[in-house]
Design brief:
The protein is α/β, with parallel strands linked by helices and about 130 residues long. The protein has three helices and six strands, in the order E-E-E-H-E-H-E-H-E. The longest helix has 14 residues. It is globular, with a radius of gyration of 16 Å. The two termini are about 30 Å apart.
Length: about 130
């Protein structure tokens, strides 16, 4: 049954009101040490995803915020981004509250990335 809202339905995205079938993967840090990143590696990753008929990459919230090169490549190749913020699940730390430094971080990252049309979903925490 493909009727919207039944228990047989999997996660569905609506982008600008249009249902979109998503094919993608998690994007985790490609390198543990940021200083070892090589120019072009993010572009190669995104192009590979697009060439594999993926249309969305989820930036995993347990890693790091994406480099501009990654988001520029997603814009270029038409790969949508599901952007996690770098915070853990609330159930792991019940009663945790936000701090001024967290708010400043979120404001900075949203301002930095918000001009990218490829970002179609912002998630407040990881999983």
């Amino acid at each position: 049954n493909t009727q919207e809202g039944n228990s047989d339905e999997t996660l569905m995205f609506r982008i600008n009101g249009v249902p979109v079938a998503v094919r993608g993967a998690n994007a985790i840090p490609m390198e543990a040490l940021e200083g070892r990143y090589v120019k072009g590696m993010h572009r190669t990753l995104v192009k590979s995803a697009a060439d594999s008929n993926m249309n969305m990459l989820r930036v995993w919230g347990g890693g790091i915020y994406p480099f501009d090169e990654f988001l520029d490549a997603c814009d270029e190749f038409g790969v949508m981004v599901f952007q996690d913020m770098m915070y853990m699940t609330v159930s792991i730390m019940p009663g945790a509250s936000r701090t001024p430094s967290q708010e400043a971080e979120l404001r900075h990252q949203v301002r930095r990335m918000s001009h990218h049309p490829s970002i179609v979903l912002w998630s407040g925490c990881n999983e």
